[in-house]
Each structure stands twice: as structure tokens, then as C-alpha cells.
Design goal:
The protein is an all-alpha fold. It is built from ten helices and no strands. The longest helix has 33 residues.
């Protein structure tokens, strides 16, 4: 076997070739849809003050990450299963974990432009002042990794690419609606606020509000980072267990 680092680089470059078929979809879902939703929700949120506008901005950055990482990774794994590519990789002397991490890394890098443009355009549309923290370079990749792990798991669970797409859209809607992502926590029922603590989108939105807007949150940043790290490790472990593989890892 080649060293793990060599495999990771080679597999990441191979996964970058998916840009040939996915860039149009990532552009529409990862940039155009969140920006349009930002503009529409901003019309209603403007009457409720700066706090509501801030939730709309950071919530749509989370939406961009949901589409460009979770959605793209789930589609990629579903595609690899459908065409037998996972079976092919399983016959090669490569680490299963290297393939998983390479997929996550490739789509993380490809999602960054749409996330940055969503944040910039959303700020211009909503006129929300930013207070960027250096921790943003940790928070955004960590959010992307946790959502990519969830997307990979969806891609492996679904029986067909069409089913995977439906599950992914349902999960996206649930994560956005089931917690203080687009809507401030004080406007949600107590039951929803408690259930939202199980959602990675809750910690993602909380962390973004703190590192992008500089606002304090009911969940401290350190708790967000620990929760997102734990979710990332747990989801990637589940993905590894779910994959059929002939090589020992």
C-alpha cells in the first residue's frame, strides 16, 4: 500500500473531477438559492430589527453549506454506488478512510467560493455589519465536515440516487426548520429549542453568529466546536462502518 497521505492526495484529486458534472448544481443550490432566499426573507425580517436580519444572513450561509456539502456529498456517494465505483475502489489497495476523507475534503474546498459569495452578497443585501473572528477558519471547515459526513451517510443509506435526493431535501428542510437557524430561538416553542440541540445545523448557525457577527449566543462557541467535532467524528465513523469494503483499514 502507498502511504495514507499519498492516497489522500491522489483520491482528493480524483474527486475533484466531479466538478465537471456537479459545478452547475453547486452554483444553483449553493449560491443562487441562498442569496435569493436571503433577499426574500430580508424583506420580512427588516421590520423585526437587526437580530432577525443576522439570523437570516447566517442561516442562509448554513443553507449554502447544506446544499454544497451535504447535498453534493450524498449525491456523489449515491452516484459511486450506482455505477459500481465503490466496488471498484474496494478492490484496490487503498484505505477506506482515505476515500471518505478525500471526498469530504474535495467538496469542502469546492463549497468555499459559494459560501463566501453567499456571505458577501447577503451582507450587501441585508446591510448587516460583520465582525469577523479568526475562528471562522476553524468553524466553516468543521461545519462542512460534519455536514459532509451526514451527506455521505445519506448517500450510502438510500437505495437509489432518486431516493437519496429526496432524503437529502427532507433532511435539509428538517435541519433548517427544527431549530434557531433562520429564526431566533426566543420565537420558537420550548420543545423545538430542546430538540434542536440534536441538530448539527443548530451548532453551525450558533457558531457562525459568533464568528461572523460577533454576537453572543445561548450556546458558547466552545460548546459549538466540541459538538461539531463530536458529530463529525461520529458521522464519519458511521460512514466507514456502512461501506462494504474488502480491504482492512
Amino acid at each position: 500500500m502507498q502511504p495514507f497521505a499519498v492516497q489522500l492526495v491522489d483520491l482528493t484529486l480524483m474527486q475533484f473531477t466531479n466538478w465537471r458534472w456537479s459545478w452547475r448544481g453547486m452554483l444553483v443550490t449553493g449560491l443562487i438559492a441562498p442569496v435569493l432566499l436571503t433577499a426574500m426573507l430580508g424583506v420580512f425580517a427588516a421590520d423585526n430589527g437587526l437580530i432577525s436580519l443576522g439570523y437570516v444572513l447566517t442561516g442562509n450561509v448554513v443553507l449554502s453549506l447544506l446544499f454544497s456539502t451535504m447535498g453534493s456529498v450524498s449525491s456523489n456517494f449515491a452516484f459511486m454506488r450506482a455505477v459500481g465505483r465503490l466496488d471498484y475502489f474496494a478492490t484496490l489497495p487503498i484505505y477506506r478512510s482515505a476515500l471518505i476523507l478525500a471526498t469530504v475534503l474535495a467538496f469542502l474546498i469546492m463549497s468555499l467560493p459559494s459560501v463566501a459569495m453567499t456571505l458577501i452578497l447577503g451582507t450587501l443585501i441585508l446591510n448587516v455589519p460583520l465582525a469577523l473572528s479568526p475562528w471562522i477558519v476553524v468553524v466553516v471547515p468543521l461545519i462542512s465536515i460534519s455536514l459532509s459526513g451526514l451527506g455521505a451517510l445519506i448517500g450510502l443509506i438510500g437505495r437509489a440516487p432518486e431516493e437519496v435526493g429526496s432524503i437529502q431535501l427532507l433532511v435539509t428542510a428538517v435541519l433548517l426548520g427544527l431549530g434557531p437557524v433562520l429564526i431566533p430561538a426566543d420565537r420558537l416553542p420550548e420543545a423545538i429549542r430542546q430538540i434542536s440541540l440534536l441538530s448539527p445545523a443548530t451548532y453551525a448557525a450558533s457558531a457562525l453568529r459568533q464568528v461572523v457577527l460577533g454576537w453572543p449566543d445561548r450556546i458558547p462557541l466552545v460548546v459549538d466546536l466540541v459538538a461539531l467535532t463530536a458529530l463529525s467524528v461520529g458521522l464519519l465513523w458511521l460512514v466507514g462502518q456502512r461501506m462494504d469494503w474488502q480491504q482492512a483499514t
